[in-house]
Amino acid sequence: MTSVSLRAAPDPQAEQSVDRRATGVLATVGALTVAAVLATTSIVQARAMPESFADLAEQVAPAVVDITVVHGASAAPASGQAVPNAPQEGPFKDFFERFFDGEQGQPQVPSQPGPRSGGVGSGFIMDPEGYVVTNNHVVAGASEITVTTKDGTDFDAELIGRDDRTDLALLKIESDATLPYVEFGESDEVRVGDWVMAVGNPFGLGGTVTAGIVSARGRDLRGGTLVDFMQIDAAINRGNSGGPAFNAEGEVIGINTAIFSPSGGNVGIGFAIPSDQAEEIIADLRDDGKIERGWLGVRIQPVTKDIAEGFGMKKAKGALISAVESDSPASAAGLKAGDVILTWDGDEIAKFKDLPRLVAATDPKTEVPVKIWRDKAEAKVEVTTGALPEPDKLAAVQPKAKPEIGQTEIPETGLSVANLDDEMRAKFGLAEDAKGVLVTKVDNNSLAAEMGLRPGDIIKSVALQDVDSADALAEKVKALRTDGEPVAMLMVWRQGAESFMALRLADA
User: Fold this and answer.
1) Given the residues 122, 137, 275, 461, the one annotated as active site
2) Is residue 241 annotated as part of the catalytic site, yes or no?
3) Phi, psi at 272, each rounded to 5°
4) What is the pLDDT of residues 332-367, one digit of tens each?
5) Which of 19, 66, 164, 167 is flagged as catalytic?
6) CA of 47: how far to CAs of 188, 199, 288, 386, in Å?
7) CA-to-CA distance for 200 and 315, rounded, in angstroms?
8) Catalytic annotation, pick one of 241, 261, 275, 322
9) Overall pTM surpassing 0.85 (yes/no)
């Protein structure tokens, strides 16, 4: 993967970031001083191709608003410091951290505070009382928020509440006049291929209408594990973020939030937060300005076909626990690394990102039945959820140059390992108390390379049994091969995080 940091655009109201991959870039679209590509629309569902969207546009457009934000005196951030207006959590945190740490990835030198800056976005009035829905990244860090209606009237907006993890925010405006508004529809009824219409404020131009179809459902964006995004192809661009997505009846079925783009402009792939999820979040924000979520206290990863085979599962499904936090609900319930969560309160975990959404939607202090896969059989546990705490920020240690001495080769895997000693810890920049077996070499085109192992990884266990020496690891792999096991399940530590990897054995 190649990532590129772009210099801030000349227009202070429209700055962008681009994540360049082989095929494209996922970019947020925000009304920020250092905003990414804003994406906000309105989506319209239609059973047959409509002759025109004019009647629908005329019906809903008065409730779609432009949002202008002002930030206080700003300064160029130092390397490692937060970028002004950058989201601290949610689907866009990773992008801002990667793309705005300096020109071409080089650290910036802190500058003196500069003039106030602003940004633009979109939103919509959801009821006659003047509540306005938008994206969190549109208004985060704003010292002033102005909502402008279609007739050009400006309103000073109050921030009622915002949610980093779903990138939603709720504003309030006061008016003596009767305000136009639109209502939420049911996004679960929207099908792939339904027509959609987008209304927003691209590039600060004001009310703009575009149309397309729902391209896909259930999309996952990196960092956005709590949102089951809807993909659309209606044209959305910088300045559209936070706007509504309408069906053919003029109901809001989504809030557009991000685009996938190699250039920062529209390429027909946009993502909207489904209304069924957004409506619940907005209702909670309206109630007390904050969101309370359930908490389990585990790190999870997908169950691949090889991992499923290694654990004796017939089908790759569920969420594999790679680590359990101490003093967490999961720890209290007896869950442990290597367990695969199959169901949560009766709901099947078809893909691993289903679990965070289900847990977050569960009230704290709720007793939940959980079905797991452990020791090649199903088991049941009871978990009492906690309240989601503020996220911890863990520092990752980058491995240094790999040594060439003291290596033990694991036959037919392409993997070479070594015992951890003080010299090895120093050469690889590891903590003094790091335990396990150090990966020192991975041959190209080997089984170890295919599974993603690389020098600097630490193998902590094999088949859920701890290993503390290279010889012990080699003997364990040999024993698994002798027993006819097709896969050796490894617990691997890398840069502060643990995960399971399935090493396919050559003879299996």
Assistant:
1) 137
2) yes
3) -125, 145
4) 999 999 999 999 999 999 888 889 889 988 989 999
5) 167
6) 15, 20, 39, 44
7) 44
8) 241
9) no
